[in-house]
Amino acid sequence: MAISKDKKQQLVADLGALLSDAKMTVYAQYQGLSVADLQDLRKMAREAGVKIKIVKNRLVKVALNEVAVYKNTDTTGLEGQLLYAISSEDEVAPAQVLDKFAKDHEALNLKGAFSGEGNNLSEDEVKSLAKLPSRQQLIAEVVNMLESGVNDITNALSGNLHALLDGVSAKATK
Question: What SS3 state is found at 38?
Fold first, then answer.
């Protein structure tokens, strides 16, 4: 069933708004996935703050052209049945969600991505991104490292204080 021109314009406008706020947009071929599989993927993506869009590539190219950052981005890789995972919060979340889902569903094949700066990333670069820890994990690691130094200093100082008090106490009892 054909979509009306007004509906297409609305789709392009909505997609353009999503892309202009996106930190990362990953695209993948999904031919062979069932509707239930796509629903599972959307649920997993929603939990990670990622939006899944299935839109004709021609409309995506038009939307990319309307966003200043993506005007000169190479779109030759947008061929076949593609779905788009878009995140405005985390740079690696779309790659992680699709990579994790692709491990259980061979029909999903990562093809590439667009960074928030307008760079086109290859399939290998997307897979490398998927292996990185999330932003929240990195923040937790930094906080843990900072906290461990404070704990070490506190323990060292309290140990010396206890030794000093024990020494003074021993002198006082003699």
Answer: helix
Answer yes or no: do 141 and 116 share one domain.
no
Let me know whether 75 and 140 are in one domain. no
Read off the pLDDT band of 73 (50, 70, 90): confident
Q: Are residues 140 and 98 in the same domain?
A: no
> In a 3-state reduction of DSSP, which class is residue 85?
strand
Distances (CA, A) of 116 to 18, 47, 69, 105: 11, 21, 8, 27
Residues 95 and 143 in one domain: no
DSSP 2: P
How many residues in the chain? Answer: 174
Contacts with 133 (C-beta within 8 Å, 6 or more apart), sequence order: 92, 141
Considering its fold, how many domains does the chain have in total?
A: 2
Mean pLDDT of 111-124: 88
The dihedral region occupied by 148, where left means phi > 0, alpha psi between -120 and 50, and beta the remainder, is alpha
> Considering the entire predicted model, what is its pTM?
0.75
